[in-house]
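Exercise 7.
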Amino acid sequence: MADTDVQQFGLIQIGNNLIAIPIEHLSEVLHVQNEQPLAQKGALLHGGISLRGRIIPVLDVAALTELGSHENRNKLGVIVEYKKRLVAVFADRIVGIATIKPDDIHHIANKNVSTHTIFTRLFSYEDSFASVLDVEAVFANPDTFTAERRDITKRGTIRTQEPVLTFEAGGAFYSVPAVEVYAAIPRQQIEKTAIAVGACLGEITYHGRRIPVVCPFTILGLGNRERPSKSEVVALRFPDGCVLGFAVDAIHTIGTFSAVNHATLPFWQGERNFIHKVIIRNDDEQVYAIDIEKLRTAKDLLTISELSKDKQPAAAEPKAEISQQKNVSREKRRYLVVDAVDRLAIPLGQVNRILEPPKSTTPASTATTGFCGYFSRFDESIALFDLAACRGQPAAQDTRSKILLTGHRGKQVGFLVEHVVSIEMSEWCEKPKQNAHRGTTTLVQLGNGKDAKVLPAFNLLEALDESAAEAISLPN
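Solution. The predicted structure, written as tokens, is:
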């Protein structure tokens, strides 16, 4: 979908109300140190705040709407801009960024009221309705006091032309273009799974969608080494509709901002540098601007982001029906869904890591079915098997092939699969029958309701001969 087919809004909360401000008019969100009364009197004038030495009038939202009075406990000031004029409003918290299709925005009006309201449009967001601020109506009101935006070009400073989201992670400040943000997600628990290896901390669920979450320090090389189990998440757009989350300490501002200078990029140890410029703000805070396009070229990050896909090109899969054997146990367990000719559900606890295929393998003489050779990783020589071939199927041909690394250190094995589809939670699984022969197919139901699916549950031990399986001793 083209960018012109959607509109972006910065979301703030005032009392119990969710307010959407068109992103092009959202100049800045800041923590207000002190609000001062002004000698000027006006029906809509609440007071004034200082923005880098500039006095910005505060709009009395309660006097203009039915939102009620606001105690300003958090002192969040939202700077709204229209035709080089500025006004501030107070908010309780920053909610995030919403990307909305025009058809999903609804117009409401009361024909019996002659005065023009500042809220005539709304859209659904999560479990609430977001009311769109009519910025033009606010500035057209004769009782609205505004300030002129300072022409910073005369002072030799730089102003960002595109709205950005700034956030803090590990003591470092970063910015990303707002248009590249899928969602700014409130603080929540990051669930550790088998993908929680290296830079990946685990995953969260947002609107029913899985989003893998990575550690900014590991990726960007700045800040401290903390790996939080609970954090706010900035979810970034990746190719093919994928999403990758960054675990952050706090989401600070949304909008454009001014900067005194662009600093030379510092050098720090690391193989990659995803920072393309450093902005020194008026308060001397350094903001590191992330190069989104370069971030998206990293193969390991692309691989992690692919786990967020809602739907994948489907291999044939069984219908979601209850097992005919009536020999099931209720369970809540995570499975990795993969394509290896057939679509299979593998216990996620058996997978140490998902890798790109190696550039080269060393062949070896062996009669083991599916054996492809050896590849090296972290000073360990690892046997590679084609999972489909191990099961008597044609070998993988898909260019999206991945390797599932399993087993214990020193005895790891890699299984080549055509495609990693998703991570799913199970509802029930068939119990193995007593004296069932090795390789007996059992079923597992993933998800529930209309999204439920029943797949063969596959233990990676079944892909190897019994002697190799005993040597690896994989968990169930």
